[in-house]
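WARN no homologs supplied; continuing
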Amino acid sequence: MTRPTPTASGEELQFRVKDCALAALATGERAQNLKELRDKLTTVDPASIYYHFWGTLLRPVFDDPRYNNDFAIWVFDALHDQPLAERLGVLDPVDFYDMEELRRELLDIIDEELDLVEVLPWTPRESQFHFMRSQIVVFDSQLTVIDPAGLAGAVSAMSVGSVFYHFVDARRRTPDGIDDFRTWLQGLPGDYSAACDRLAQVDPFFRSLVEIREELFEALLETLTG
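OK structure emitted
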């Protein structure tokens, strides 16, 4: 977790910018119909649910997917169930305390659908849902922010991996479940509540990391540089 640490002068606190990549690891679990997907979801590692929601932000995307998580995409593309895909597609992981709470919501939605269907559609083997899990690889970007006034400029220069690490992944690492930027600002002397309030309004899920970076830059520019 990124924490503020003293600079060499001991008079200020610095924000050390990290970068990351999200490695995809196979779990060996697969599903060819909705019932199998539901059964696997009950026991799959929470890191798999994390990957299939948040991993879409970091993975290269060569088209414009209709939905923002892999479950909704598969239900639409492989099972051709648009109503269910839309119910799954509007799920925002930010609204849930952790992956277990999100898992329960996924199961509830799928259970409701299974109660309605009489014949389960099956996908060909080549269209099975493959459960993957995520492992984050973190490295130092060599970028350090020593003053809040420089945070906006630093954000504008960040890679999408840094944006993901500090604004998305931080939510499962920080005690308060918030991004690293707010954690840092709240630990500094002075009042940065305006900046923190603006950052809290930025939804990290239903947009690209490039769009998130731009919105973060604008919010910090307005609230920290006067």
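The beta strands are 5-6, 13-31, 129-145.
OK
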